[in-house]
Amino acid sequence: xxxxxxxxxxxxxxxxxxxxxxxxxxxxxxxxxxxxxxxxxxxxxxxxxxxxxxxxxxxxxxxxxxxxxxxxxxxxxxxxxxxxxxxxxxxxxxxxxxxxxxxxxxxxxxxxxxxxxxxxxxxxxxxxxxxxxxxxxxxxxxxxxxxxxxxxxxxxxxxxxxxxxxxxxxxxxxxxxxxxxxxxxxxxxxxxxxxxxxxxxxxxxxxxxx
Length: 210
Description:
Blueprint: E1 7-12, H1 16-27, E2 32-38, H2 41-51, E3 55-58, H3 67-77, E4 83-87, H4 92-101, E5 105-108, H5 113-124, E6 129-130, H6 132-143, H7 149-159, H8 164-171, H9 175-189, H10 194-204
Parallel strand pairs: 1-2, 1-3, 3-4, 4-5, 5-6
């Protein structure tokens, strides 16, 4: 049985059309009410402090403060805050960091409307909700060992097209050491070569070239 009180929602997304469409769709539900919108993390924090929504729908990639950082800031101040991540991105690191920050759910913008409504209701009631695609992505992250800070540095340079000699010079290490790091990266990511490693790391959100 649904509560007589509507789920009061704060929508956070930097695209106006996305916010407008999502708000219109959710406001059509008798048990949901979009009470505020925000285009960035700072505005989201202010809106949360002002309106104390039941639930926040948070985009992952926002200008300045990321969705995960904004989630961490909100949950840090309001431990009972309920945040549902809604994103076009399914990179495993973005998913992992969002959940680590305190989000209680993660769904893709390509999700069916019925599934989004289910996710909102579940998270609003204190349950967790993961899009099946996201659940498998998270399982994949857990299945491989984390890269060290140095391996991540090397991987970013590989993705930018640098050769072993250039990487060695930039990091002030030997070429042999670079080769060892590259070998470990290939093993941990379960890929065959440098190109595949760079592609996989970018797709999974392990590194970014921005």
